[in-house]
Amino acid sequence: MIYFTITTNDILSIIILSLTCWRLSSLFAREKGPFDIFEKIQWFLGSYNNILFNTLHGGIICTWCNSVWFGFILSFLIANNIIENIIFTLAISTVSIFIDGVINSG
């Protein structure tokens, strides 16, 4: 039986991983990065007239979209089973989107 319990350490981990997720999402979506690496990735994905590359390009320049993927990757650091992985992915992404809304609202 799979059960889910959340502890204080999990909440702290979610906050820290959410900040990490927001930073990664913001880097890929809005910044050039060192040696313009993120800009080159965006250009590469956007330069092909292909549905796969266009979808990836749209997903990488959208902070809301890429925060789900970064949240999924980061959730493996604290999840013990698949249910926790799904819950932590959504929690990390949600907090990351909230942080992005607060930072970029003005």
Give structural attributes.
single chain; 106 residues; 5 helices; globular
Structure explained in plain terms:
With 106 residues, the chain is an all-alpha fold. 74% of the residues lie in helices and 0% in strands. Helix 1 crosses helix 4, helix 2 runs antiparallel to helix 3 and helix 4 runs antiparallel to helix 5. The chain is globular.
| Helix content range | over 70%
- The radius of gyration computed from the alpha-carbon positions, rounded to a whole number of angstroms, is 15 Å
* Helix-strand makeup class: mainly alpha
Give the topology string: H per helix, E per strand: HHHHH
Main beta-sheet strand count, sense and barrel state = none
Instruction: Give the count of helical stretches.
Output: 5
Question: Which ranges are low-confidence, i.e. pLDDT below 50, for 5 or more consecutive residues?
Answer: none
Q: Can you count the beta strands?
A: 0
Percent strand: under 5%
Shape: globular
Mean residue pLDDT: 85
